[in-house]
Amino acid sequence: MHNKGALKNEDKIVSKNGMMYIHIPISWKQPEEERLKMFFEVLKSLKKQNKKIFIHCIKNYRVSVFMYLFNKIVLKQKNSKLIAPKEFKPNKVWKKLIKYKA
What we know:
The chain is an all-alpha fold. It has helices spanning 10-16, 33-48, 62-74, 92-98.
């Protein structure tokens, strides 16, 4: 996905610095449950391998929701909280996703 503000050639820059690059494009307007599940599977796999993981998105809105859901659903953290930038104002689509149950 080419989003405004995205780092050009991010994959090449990351790989050149010895890190594995995994891109899971998430639409802001229509996030897909399948992409969320893919995110869960990638994180579970890397966690099993004891890999260090750096996850980001341009404004950290999408990743904040996805990490919240990963902690709540996959890691089963009872006190999981959505930690997002102050300016994050989820719309209907994202409010619904925040309530997602696997």
